[in-house]
Design goal:
By secondary structure, the protein is an alpha/beta fold. The chain contains eleven helices and seven strands.
């Protein structure tokens, strides 16, 4: 895997995605070798051309001899819980390139658009020596703020004439990006959208970094070089202001809490399902015979030993 063997990489990511017992040993072994790759999160509403734009960016950086890993988080199939794989089709141009590794992962119902195993998959690609990592997320509206918790730079992709893009502007998603691409630059409403986005960005006067907006055309590759230049400028800004290491430290700590919360929730659900007394509490709440907060207190006390004899939660 450290040598970049694609089959070994695929097997390693499958282990962490399936939460295999071997994954714990694997992640512990490779963690000291990480922190070298630069992670770019690519987010935005469905159908705006995120995959096509990533494909164009990969082509551009491969011309600079940079090795690349791509994790594309797809909405999970309701039948198999796997990824729907549509994004891999659009990235197919790079499948035969030995220095590009592409993997689709199912979000498995995770609300923020990121599979729980995404961080571990990024660590695997980092340890395998990839220079750049692209993380494409589902495009789940305001929940996309979770992409901040894993990327060094966040690229938001919008498309003119798309109702979803307008909704993205309204949903507070504009707080997320470091760089913005308005794709389909030949669309008649493209420049209007740039002006709309710019006017929204001016409301945030506290950010030292002002997100640049780039008109792109992913299919032809037009302005992709300009977009890459802006992504590189953001990286330099982070490095020159000692922000990169601080952002990574914050992201890693946040990911620990996110994964711990996810696992604690799963443990809680299993505990309640397996305990007749706890199920009785839920039934009483559903019949409005017991208030929800009392039920919460009793469940937390029994499952996690949280609470005290006075029935109050710890500070």
């Amino acid at each position: 895997m450290r040598a970049g063997d694609k089959r070994a990489l695929a097997r390693a990511i499958t282990l962490v995605e399936n939460r295999d017992a071997l994954a714990y040993d694997l992640v512990r072994e490779i963690s000291p070798d990480t922190g070298r790759a630069y992670g770019i999160g690519v987010t935005g509403p469905p159908g705006v051309g995120k995959s096509s734009l990533i494909s164009a960016l990969v082509r551009h950086v491969r011309g600079k001899q940079r090795s690349v890993g791509v994790i594309s988080v797809d909405p999970s199939s309701p039948f198999s819980q796997g990824a729907l794989l549509g994004d891999r089709i659009r990235l197919a141009d790079h499948f035969l390139d030995p220095d590009v590794f592409i993997r689709s992962m199912g979000s498995r119902g995770h609300l923020g658009g990121l599979a729980e195993a995404t961080l571990q998959a990024m660590l695997v690609l980092d340890a395998a020596g990839k220079d750049l990592l692209f993380l494409e997320t589902v495009g789940a509206g305001q929940g996309e703020v979770e992409v901040i918790g894993i990327a060094d730079t966040v690229l938001l992709v919008l498309m003119p004439g798309s109702g979803d893009s307008v909704q993205a502007l309204k949903a507070g998603i504009m707080e997320i990006p470091d760089v913005i691409a308005v794709n389909k630059m030949d669309h008649p409403a493209a420049k209007t959208m740039v002006n709309e986005v710019r006017s929204i960005l001016t409301l945030d006067k506290e950010r030292a970094w002002k997100p640049p907006i780039v008109l792109t055309e992913a299919v032809t590759g037009e302005n992709v070089d300009v977009l890459w230049q802006k992504l590189e400028e953001h990286r330099r800004f982070l490095e020159e202001n000692d922000e990169l290491d601080a952002r990574r430290r914050r992201n890693l700590a946040g990911e620990v809490f996110a994964v711990a919360s996810f696992r604690a929730k799963a443990h809680l659900e299993h505990a309640v399902a397996d305990d007749p007394e706890l199920r009785r509490l839920l039934d009483e709440v559903q019949r409005r015979e017991l208030d929800p907060l009392t039920a919460v207190r009793e469940i937390m006390e029994k499952v996690f030993r949280i609470g005290d004899t006075n029935g109050s939660d710890p500070p």
